[in-house]
Write a structure and sequence with these properties.
The protein is of the alpha/beta class and 338 residues long. The protein has 10 helices and 10 strands. It has one domain: TIM Barrel, CATH 3.20.20.140. Helix 6 links the parallel strand 7 and strand 8.
Length: 338
Amino acid sequence: MTIAENNEIDTWLAREEPEEVLEPALPIIDPHHHLWDMRRARLDPDSFRQRLYLCDEISRDITTSGHNVVQTVFAQCGAFYRADGPAEMRCIGETEFVHGIAAMSRSGIYGETRLCTGIFSTADLRLGAAAEPILEAHLHASEYFRGIRSAFPSDLNQTFLEGFALLGKHDLSYDNWSPNYLRLPRLADLANKFPETTIIVNHLGGRIDPAATDSEIAEWRRCIDAVAACPNTVMKLGGAQMRIGDWEPPYHMQQTEQPRNSEFFCETLLPWYQYALEAFGPERCMFESNFPVDRECLSYRACWNLFKRISASLGLSDSEKTAVFSGTAAKAYRLNTP
């Protein structure tokens, strides 16, 4: 079914020249995608082009891609918060909503992929020990709840650290994202304070600009090295294709008439993916779609073909490919794999 609010992005993606699916039997766990309905939201000019992305939309992307996506993990995005109740508890609505999507997927009506077998939402850890009821409510809302994503204060103050300690108590992971990769050494400080907690770095650690200068690339590498030195950190390899605020990469749908193919993206972005993968090692890396955010730059088929091209270019072994396409995600989010 065509959604009017999605017409712009759907029309642009329809101009893609379809490419052959690489390694179609390779099992994939997509560890980072969003679901939302922005049709009634007051949107600013820099908002996402994909207005609606729910069970139908992601299932269609996966099915038509031709890739063997067996499970997915939902990533926090502020979807379907409760409209009432205490402000700090309204985020529970997101986990309740996604648990319903997981139930819909489990019926098999939407295809063989099991959507949202892992969920991470959010909680305000700046509340310190008072954040515990929020985490407990998330856990009560879904058996698939695995952790949170939030920002962290630059001073890592004691109250925040008390809140962060609750993640270890409840066996929950911590996702983090900021376009500013300069905060990664401070994230490493946090990781060293809580070695028992899995900390998951999103989207290659920060904004990836194909026009970055040599000094900017060197600084990004320094920051990647700092956080990679912590054995409890994991890197999500993806998101390098996305628009951030009013900054658009040259391959964004607002910048080019036709979507680029996976070969183009591999040639353009391989150095960043390669450096992060080598810094963390395949056993601590996982490819991610970051859909529908990255849908503004490439199709789901091209996205996973890109990752398979990267794997081939770097000569990953079968066991290393298993790690980056499914194994690391299953371990980090404690998924029940068939």
